[in-house]
C-alpha cells in the first residue's frame, strides 16, 4: 500500500474510533489556533464579511489623511453655502433684511475654517491632536484679524466690529481668500448738536458699499457727510460686498449731546439816578456754568451779577452758558448806558446839633452827617455852596464839598425856618453845573 492509501486508512480508522466523542484542546492550543485563524481572515479581504478590523483601519486612515491635509495648505476654496449671494450693490439691503435687527444688537461673529467644515460634514470628530491643531490655527487667524483692523483704522476713531451674516468667515480668513472686509473711519464719534460727521470707506476686497443709519438714512458712495441735529445715539453700519456676492459689515455708534439755550435781560438798578448800574437777569435753560462778558474788558462768572459801567456808551454784553457735556450756547445784547453818572443833590431839611457848632465837617458813615446840610454828589471836582437867610444875608459859604452848614451863624444856632441855598461847580468830565433851592432847619424840641 502506498503512503496515500495508508494515510487515508488511518484517517478513516481514527474517525470511526472517535465518532461521537468530544475532544477538548488545551488552552495553549486554542489560543494558537484562534490567532492564526484571525490573521488568515484579516489577510483575505472579503467585502461581504466587513468586520471591526476593517472599520478600525478605515478610521485610522481617515485620521492620518486629515492631519496631512491640515499641513498641506491646499489651494481649494469653498464658498459658504449659508451666505446669500449679493447680485448688485442695490440688492444688498434686501439680502440683509433678515439681519436688520443687527442695527440694535448684532450677534457675535464665529470662526470656522473650510477644513473644519469639511471634517464635520464627513463626520470626522477624531483625534484630539486634530482639535488642538484647529485651535492653534484659530488663534493665529484671530491675531491676523486684529492686526488688519488696526492697520485699517490708523490714527482715526476706532470702529467696532460686531458680527457677520450667516457663517461668513472671520476677517483674517476673508483677507486670505480675497473676500470683502468692511471697515471705515468717522471724523467724530460724539459731540454737541447739531453734529456733522464725515464717514470714509476703508474696506478692502470690495466691489460696492452701502451705508445705513439707525435713523433711516442710506448712501452708496465711498464718503458720506451726515448732519445729526437732534440729541441721541445713532448706529452706523457699512456693508461691503465682493464680486462673488459675499457681504461683510462694520459698525460704529455716534452720540449727539444736547446744547443749552442762553437768554438774559438787562434792567437798570435805578434809572432815575443812572442807567449805568444794571441787574443782569439770567433766563438760560440747560446750563450749569455761565460766563458774562460786559463789553468793556471785564468778565463775571456769577449766575446773575450786578454790574456798573464806568463810562457812558454802548456796550455789547454776552452770556455763554455751558452744560455738563461741555456743550455751550452764546447770546449777545447791545446795551446803551448814556445817562451821566455825575450828580449832585441836596436834602430839603435837616436837624442841627443843639449842643453847639460842629464846624460842618462830616462823613457819610458818621452820625454827624444827619446834623449837617450837605450834598450827595459824585464826580464833582469844583464846588461852591452859599446859604442865605430869608432877607438875603449870607449865613454860610463853602468851597469844600466835605464841609456843610451846621445850622449856626457866628456861633449861634439859627432859628428854625426855611433858608435859601445856591451851588455851582464842575464835574470830572468838564461839565459845569448850577443848582438852587431851599432847606428847612428844624429844632428837636419843636418836633
Structure commentary:
The chain has 447 residues and is of the alpha+beta class. The chain folds into 4 domains: 29-76, no CATH class; 89-257, Immunoglobulin-like, CATH 2.60.40; 264-337, Immunoglobulin-like, CATH 2.60.40; 343-446, Immunoglobulin-like, CATH 2.60.40. Helices cover 22% and strands 32% of the residues. It has 7 helices and 24 strands. The strands form 7 sheets. A 5-stranded mixed sheet has the order 2-8-7-4-5, with no helix packed on it. A hairpin with a 3-residue loop joins strand 9 and strand 10. Helix 3 runs parallel beside helix 6. The termini are far apart. Mean pLDDT is 74; it is low at 72-177.
Write the layout of secondary structure elements.
Layout: H1 3-18, H2 27-43, H3 52-72, H4 92-95, H5 114-121, H6 128-153, H7 171-177, E1 184-186, E2 190-192, E3 195-201, E4 208-213, E5 218-219, E6 223-228, E7 232-241, E8 247-257, E9 264-270, E10 274-282, E11 289-293, E12 299-300, E13 306-308, E14 313-322, E15 328-337, E16 343-345, E17 349-350, E18 376-378, E19 380-388, E20 394-398, E21 408-409, E22 412-413, E23 417-427, E24 432-441
Parallel strand pairs: 2-8, 17-24
Antiparallel strand pairs: 1-3, 3-6, 4-5, 4-7, 7-8, 9-10, 10-13, 11-12, 11-14, 14-15, 16-18, 19-20, 19-23, 21-22, 23-24
Helix pairs in contact: 3-6
